[in-house]
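SEQUENCE, STRUCTURE TOKENS:
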Amino acid sequence: MSLPALFDPLRLPVVASPMFIISNPAMVVAQCKAGIVGSFPALNARPQEALDGWLTEIEEALDAHNQANPDSPAAPYAVNQIVHRSNDRLMADLEVCVKHQVPIVITSLGAVEAVNEAVHSYGGIVLHDVINNRFARKAIEKGADGLIAVAAGAGGHAGTLSPLALIGEIRSWFDGPLLLSGAISTGSSILAAQAMGADLAYMGSAFIASKEANAEEAYKQMVVDCAADDIIYTDKFTGVHGNYLKPSLVASGIDPAELLKEERSAMDFAKAPGSEAKAWKSIWGSGQGIGTVKAVESISDIVTRLTAEYDAARARLLA
């Protein structure tokens, strides 16, 4: 199945994943101008009333870009909604998204028909992230338009399944828009995602090390300095399994080896044990693909490099 027409302006088949705290309007605008879908979690706009202003800022910047560059319009943007009963902002944030007719809404941690219907009311599309085939079927049954397969190695709340297995199972019954997340950080891995059956790559960690990212400089440098062996997979901070940078744990006074020995029931998911560290703020998330990130660059330069790598990988295979 071909992708909806709103993806036509993409320079590269990539959706930048929404990253808690890190993704902001400047980052989203830079990603869209560079030719990939930019996104941010609605919860990043604080207080809730700020979301309307964020969307206005993004839309005005992209509209100005499109008027100045009619032959190379910006890619569309997306907003991530945490569809979980713990998110007491959901309906208020959804109302703002409907007002602005956000073109793409990414839903996480639950699939709710009312959310999908609200987005469909103005012609928007919903992409739902899943970690297994069972959740994928439920999401489509409840009205999602497309799926984001979050495989092993992805940043944030990652799954455990091989991307080969997860994409294969979903594609056996679903021919709609399908994205793949999990250690994608090069042009070659973007092409590999398509070869496996995905339409688009879903990548975030490589953009932490960007000049536009709302991340501490130490965080960006840690992404540059670290590799897959420096990632720990645990549910001890939020109650949901995720991938985190070990050096950020150590800097917060946490021994990664001892952490894994603790029982989940003994933990406070808001804070790390024996510290005031909080997940995402001082315990930094990252996927396993960061070993190929070698410098802090502008988003424009990152996308240009990825595009060159992608083209080179295609040419190599065709040869």
